[in-house]
Amino acid sequence: MGFAVDGAALLTAQTAAPGPYIDPDYHQLDSWVVIHQNNTATFYVGKTDCGQGTGTGFRQLMSDELDIAYDQTTCIMGSTDNTVDQGGSGGSTAMERDSWPMRRAAAEARRVLLELGSARLGVPVDQLTVSNAVITAKSDASKRVTYGT
Questions:
Q1: Of 37, 102, 127, 143, which one has the greatest count of Cβ atoms within 10 A?
Q2: Tens of pLDDT along 82-107?
Q3: What is the C-alpha separation between 145 and 54, in angstroms, rounded?
């Protein structure tokens, strides 16, 4: 499942200092994250990994923020037809400069998924918990729905 959100509320997280490239819009969730029906996710990153391990780092960061197991995710990097434009790669600064929009996109996706889970389960968002891409009612563990559903 891919999804986009128009007019979504901004996260209250602190904004990172501007880098040398335009900060991509993390509200365009379908540009960053696809949730599949089998409860896996694909992350789309506009950087490339030239051996520094950034692909692993980005994937881990987004998995953690979304609350999905790392091994249930894949990461597509630097495919100009499919990924956002995050500028060039080099100088070992990708994690420092470019991880912030990815983290916000994953957090926004989690927020939207919790709202969808709330509507499906009939339980307020603040009464839900997430573990490994499964949304569960805190008061009744039988009320649950996966991200993929």
A1: 102
A2: 666 666 666 666 677 677 778 888 89
A3: 32
